Amino acid sequence: MWMMLRVIPIMWRAVRPSRVADMPAVVNSFWLPKGYEGLTFFGKILAPTQELADTFNRGFSSLKNHEMIHLRQAQSCGDSWIRFYLLYIWYWLRALGMNRKMKHAAYLLNPFEMEAYARMHDLDYLKGPATEWRRYAKMSLKERLKLYKKYE
């Protein structure tokens, strides 16, 4: 129960995405589905263990880049965490039916995740805005699935 409540101060103290330069990682395994290493949450990265949080905080890696791309995406959503999360949930719900065809499809076919996974190894990607998600959002779910399977 305590782990669940630890996110309230993070939400309460959150600033606009454009005012976040770096996202520190904090331990909170409650909100992370099993097998996930990090979750962007109102300008922080939630990590399941202290060891993983330390990895995020030590410096830039592909994992940190993935989460920082989500920060740039929130900036591109009217500089609003709320708008980013509402869109994220909308895209996730729309793809939920695809989970019958592919495990975790609602997550993997989410335009925000598609951009973050496609660009996470490009450490120069954050020099510009992260708006590639908009191109994925215009695709049908079948097109996104086909694209995902092509690069899987």
List the defining traits of the structure above:
152 residues, mainly alpha, 3-stranded mixed β-sheet, 9 helices, 52% helix, globular
Walk me through the structure:
- The protein is built from nine helices and three strands; from the N terminus they run H-H-E-E-E-H-H-H-H-H-H-H.
- A hairpin with a 2-residue loop joins strand 2 (about 40) and strand 3 (about 45).
- The radius of gyration is 15 Å and the shape is globular.
- The mean pLDDT is about 90.
- Helix 4 crosses helix 5.
- It has helices at about 1-5, 5-10, 50-60, 60-75, 80-95, 105-110, 110-120, 135-140, 140-150, and strands at about 25, 40, 45.
- By secondary structure, it is mainly alpha-helical.
- About 50% of the residues lie in helices and about 5% in strands.
- The N and C termini lie far apart (about 35 Å).
- A three-stranded mixed beta sheet has the order 1-3-2.
Average pLDDT metric: 92
Q: Given the C-alpha coordinates, what overall shape results?
A: globular
Find the count of extended strands (DSSP E, 2+ residues): 3
Describe the main β-sheet briefly.
3 strands, mixed
List the strand order in the largest sheet.
1-3-2
Q: DSSP helix count?
A: 9
Q: Would you list the SSEs in sequence order as H and E?
A: HHEEEHHHHHHH
Helix content: 40-55%
Cα(first) to Cα(last) distance is 37 Å
Query: pLDDT below 50 for ≥5 consecutive residues: which ranges?
Result: none
Strand-residue proportion: 5-15%
How would you classify the helix and strand content by structural class? Answer: mainly alpha
